[in-house]
Amino acid sequence: MVEQDCIFCRIASGDIPAGRVYEDDQCIAFRDTNPQAPVHLLVIPREHVESLDDVGLKDEPMLGHLMRIASRIANDQGLAENGYRTVINTGASAGQSVFHLHVHVLGGRPLSWPPG
Length: 116
Ligand code: AMP
Fold this sequence. Notes:
Elements: H1 7-13, E1 20-23, E2 27-31, E3 39-45, H2 60-76, E4 84-87, E5 103-107
Antiparallel strand pairs: 1-2, 2-3, 3-5, 4-5
The chain binds adenosine monophosphate.
Adenosine monophosphate (AMP) binds at residues 7, 18, 30, 32-34, 42, 89, 95-98.
């Protein structure tokens, strides 16, 4: 279902432009407009799911697909040799600001741990 007030639904539908690097029938991947690393991509499901906390049993294949595509685009962007990070922020206190499930893919610089 497309939520008209959800910016990532509107990106997925093509209503709002984005720097797309990949798309298929289940998900799209695009460049983050406020990159936190030389490569910072977001992978989102086409279907509106608010957060990881709202993922149900029926969503398991979609979630697996998002993670596989995250790895594939990281490889396509040349991140695999030095490593990359995948992050899902869940809830406002964890830094989630867009309430449509998304996987961050970050790489191209050393990434410290633990995150803030
Ligand atoms: P989070 O804070 O984990 O919810 O991540 C949301 C991310 O979406 C942030 O890194 C934002 O910079 C990014 N973002 C917000 N609006 C857009 C947009 N229109 N196109 C691309 N990235 C966006």
